[in-house]
């Protein structure tokens, strides 16, 4: 496969990549666009970026309910996702919830 075709594919993948709200100055999209112009771009690198974009590894290796809800702290990952989503919207936990470790 020619380098220009690989470069076009990686530019297309970079255009579809979602932005990171926590690091606006450091985006993976920018890195992928820079790599697309690299003279030694390989098909393997393009396939890897495409697999990351389309969550192919997550689809191949499903997470079981036992992994997502460990018996020691069953709501850990639910709270983690909720915290990240709220943080992205600028909503923080009140100091007293942090102090008393209340969710």
UniProtKB/TrEMBL annotation:
<dbReference type="InterPro" id="IPR037653">
    <property type="entry name" value="Cbp6"/>
</dbReference>
<dbReference type="Pfam" id="PF20180">
    <property type="entry name" value="UQCC2_CBP6"/>
</dbReference>
<protein>
    <submittedName>
        <fullName>Uncharacterized protein</fullName>
    </submittedName>
</protein>
